[in-house]
Amino acid sequence: MTDKKYVYDFAEGDASMRNLLGGKGANVAEMTKLGMPVPQGFTITTEACTQYYTDDETISDAIRAEIMAHVATLEAQQGKKFGDPENPLLVSVRSGARASMPGMMDTILNLGINETVVQTLIAKSGNPRWAWDSYRRFIQMYSDVVMEVGKAYFEKLIDQMKEERGVTQDVDLTAADLEELAGQFKEAYKSRIGSEFPSDPIEQLFGAIKAVFRSWNNPRAIYYRRMNDIPGDWGTAVNVQSMVFGNLGNTSGTGVAFSRNPSTGEKGLFGEFLMNAQGEDVVAGIRTPETIDQLRDENPAVYDQFVEIVHNLEAHYRDMQDMEFTIEDGTLYMLQTRNGKRTAAAAFRIASDLVDEGMIDEKKAVLMIDPKQIDALLHPQFDDAELKAATPIGKGLPASPGAATGQVVFTAEVATEWTVKKGLPVILVRLETSPEDIEGMHHAKGILTARGGMTSHAAVVARGMGTCCVAGLGEIRFGADEKSFTLGGHTFHEGDWISLDGSTGNVYGQEIKTVPAEIGGDFGRIMAWADQYRTMKVRTNGDTPTDARQAREFGAEGIGLCRTEHMFFEPDRIAAIREMIVSDTVEQREAALAKLLPMQRGDFEGIYEAMEGFPVTVRLLDPPLHEFLPTDEADIEALAADMGIQVDDLKAKIASLHEFNPMMGHRGCRLDVTYPEIGRMQTQAIIEAAINVQKRHPEWTMVPEIMVPLVGEVKELAFVKAIITSTADAIIAESGVKLEYKVGTMIEIPRAALTADEIATEAEFFSFGTNDLTQMTFGFSRDDAGKFLDAYYATKIYETDPFARLDQVGVGKLVKMSAELGRSTRPDLKLGICGEHGGDPSSVEFCHKVGLDYVSCSPFRVPIARLAAAQAALR
User: Which of 109, 315, 403, 870 has an alpha carbon 20 to 30 Å from 775's alpha carbon atom?
Assistant: First the structure.
């Protein structure tokens, strides 16, 4: 272990060392290399973090010694020493994973300060207010981040002090006030921890480093990683950086800026700053900041220097940059830069503009957009007529665009509970959000905060999620019960409806109807490039002509899964399917199926028409028959009357169809084995519809694909295939129309995957039904797994939901194996996936790697799959 290097000075690294130094450490090192004004320091690597967990959450002696050696180097560079009464060194401690995780990790400023150092700072600066402000901030941060006391109590002490002094802003508190607060903070620490607040800078430093390592596995970090497919074994780096102070007075300040507008993508400097403040004041929304262009009036020289640095950084990284800076007594320092989080609309505009500006090529433009962000482009906007009729009751900052309407909730926990358990749309209303709110923010339709600016936690996280957000609406007054707020003369309680316009900042005290979003030209341009580079086709899962048309608008190249059973739940059809199910004889069943035939044929014609000649894969009836049967007494009596049978006899029939495990029971191809007439009717509808559409559109080449579900044995498939081919061939011969069709199967039972070479002797295509394949491989129900999966995430048994992201180790191995086995028998075997994994970018990339011909997903995920498939091909 001693041969490995775990700590690097900023001057030793560069941007290529991201995996080792984390994003923040690599970028700070790169800025140092470029000669930019960066406060110096060192980075403790991500490997040190993983070693910390390997060593039972302890920092080994060897790593500790290496850290201390770099502390000595930093002290020599700065001409200062930790705890020195003459020239004390203060540092910040920040996390920095290789993937950007805004707000997920914890930061500590002013580390190294104690009562002695405060007096030295006062003597050297003549600024007691700054010294005490720095100390009280450190006590608060260290108590919260390292000792996990929580910051709410400290905020109450600050608010209490301001109320007693008759002031509204933190900056209005005097040096004496802040000294008194520091004492109160230390007392609060002692009462909760049971020991004195640490004064030894080295003890403070290692406490902070451990806290950053621990924060890698705090609940909000684990949740964020699960949302963004970030592996848990990456670990986080720790950046120790000499302090520069934005809170020295009115010639000092701190800010956050973007090289382009992160909401719209418009080129030009965009950001905010606060004078006489430290970094967390801007991002935490404690004070409402000024816009970056106002810095020109405050300090023109610093503004001009900053503009030049921004230009150079964007040109260097060839992407929009998100930067943090501090001005200490008129001198500019760059604290960090990274590729900025942006809305979906901004992502497409920025990528398109960078191509036009000659900074990147088309391939890079395709690769730089997160496919998941497309979701945000496709979400609703407000109905124009209803919006015009509505009057805003308040206006905040348009922090993240889009429209949201929902019921008011005041905590992240309630937001999660109402959406997950009750299925209710909610708007999360907070004074300000914090990283602890991440899960509730993810579930909320929209977020409204009273504090904070365009770069506050709420704004940055909401934009990354594609969630509508209005921030900094200072007129909001919260009720003492913490379950109500007043705005524009109206009081709203938990459960009341409001609407947010994240594009304008307007807030409405009512529910407003939403309509589908319209997609701009940059989207079409980049998606055209994506289509040019991808090799996999993208189909949709669609059961109606409406689904098919929507998917075609989004670029679907066929239907990979048409679930025929969904058509049977229509009110005019359910009676006929129920009649078929409870029939006792073949003749009765055929009579009932004859009623369904024209309905199914009409449905298929509509879908074929919408697909305009692109392939359509129709799955034969799949679910257990009991799903169609009535449970309500009145419905049972009505069905008995229609069929001319006794109610008790019908109830007995329904009871006989009950299964202990219906998802593994009498369903799928087993229905066609038991009742061949079902397969015959469905084949007739599929083939006759194709013939009719072919006659109307001779320019199209109709090749319907008939898919047999839940096959586990080749003889099952052969039996059902014989029903299909005998029926189809007779209809085609009689019609006089030349029509080809294919018969294939879903691979959704592990045994089918294991015997795919045999099944391919009968199947002309495989479609991997990864929803059921995942269910049967893991051995748990996707409908019930949610009850225990949270415990699996918390204990790190699983990192992601296997129903949302394909399990590439287990289920993926079955997919790869069956693809190889199937093509060993039938080299031209067409392969696709029709589980919802077909719209998950990481799963799409896996499908590309194993050689699938297409992925199929829900209509609104088609653009996501198209972009993900292009990125897979380019990588």
Answer: 870
Selected catalytic residue, list 834, 837, 847, 857: 834
Determine how β-strand 7-9 pairs with β-strand 497-501: unpaired
Average the pLDDT over each of 269-283, 676-690, 709-723 and give the range with the smallest value. Answer: 269-283
**For the residues of 681-719, what is the DSSP string, one character each?**
HHHHHHHHHHHHHHHH-TTS----EEEE-S--SHHHHHH
Q: How far is CA 831 from CA 747, 756, 760, 816, 827, in A?
A: 10, 12, 11, 11, 11
Asked if the model's pLDDT at residue 675 lies above 90, the reply is yes
pLDDT digits (tens, 9 = 90+) for 51-63: 999 999 999 999 9
- Write the Ramachandran bin of 326: left for phi over 0, alpha for psi from -120 to 50, otherwise beta: beta
Distance separating alpha carbons of residues 745 and 826, to the nearest angstrom: 14
- Helical H segments across 390-447, by residue range: 412-422, 438-443
Of 345, 493, 295, 480, give the one whose Cα is nearest residue 409: 493
CA distance 17 to 32: 14
For the question of residue 469 being annotated catalytic, the response is no
Q: Which residues contact 130 (CB under 8 A, 6 or more apart)?
A: 121, 245, 247, 248, 249
Q: Quick check: 811 pLDDT over 90?
A: yes
Distance, in Å, from the CA atom of 509 to the CA atom of 496, rounded to the nearest integer, reads 9
Contact 469/447 with Cβ under 8 angstroms? Answer: yes
Q: What does the pLDDT look like over 724-783, one tens digit per residue? A: 999 999 999 999 999 999 999 999 999 999 999 999 999 999 999 998 999 999 998 776
- What pLDDT is recorded for position 2? 53
Please say whether the beta carbons of 866 and 534 come within 8 A: yes
Q: In the β-sheet with 91-97, what is the strand arrangement from edge to edge?
A: 7-9, 41-44, 236-242, 91-97, 108-111
Angle in degrees, CA 39, 294, 253, rounded to 5 = 30
Q: Report pLDDT for 283.
A: 66
- Exposure of 591 by Cβ count < 10 A (0-12 exposed, 13-18 middle, 19+ buried)? middle
| Residue type at 834 in one-letter notation | C
Work out whether strand 537-541 and strand 41-44 pair parallel, antiparallel, or are unpaired. unpaired
* Helix H or strand E segment including 408: strand 403-409
Those residues whose C-beta lies under 8 Å from the C-beta of residue 214, and which sit 6 or more positions away, are 57
Residue 664 binned pLDDT confidence (cut-offs 50, 70, 90) = confident
CB 672 within 8 A of CB 720: yes
Asked if 559 and 615 count as a contact pair (C-beta separation under 8 A), the reply is yes
Residue 344 in this model has a pLDDT that exceeds 50: yes
- Please name which of 424, 432, 324 lies closest in space to residue 92, comparing C-alpha atoms: 324
Confidence at residue 1, expressed as pLDDT on a 0 to 100 scale: 45
How would you class 772 by CB atoms within 10 Å of its CB: exposed for 0-12, middle for 13-18, buried for 19 or more? buried
* Residue 349 tokens, joined: 């505009």
pLDDT in the model for residue 723? 98
146 vs 509, residue with greater confidence: 509
Token pair for 131: 């010294």
Cβ(467)–Cβ(460) under 8 Å? no
Q: Which helix (H) or strand (E) holds 116?
A: helix 115-125
Question: Residues 692-715: what's their mean pLDDT?
Answer: 97
Annotated catalytic residue, options 443, 457, 626, 848: 457
Q: Confirm if 73 and 80 have CB atoms less than 8 A apart.
A: no
The verdict on whether 834 is a catalytic residue reads yes
Place of tokens 């905020």: 155
What is the token pair recorded at 599?
């309905």
- pTM attached to this predicted model: 0.81
Give DSSP secondary structure letters for 769-783.
Answer: -HHHHHHHHHTS-TT
Q: Is the pLDDT at 104 greater than 60, yes or no?
A: no
Q: What is the pLDDT of residue 372?
A: 84
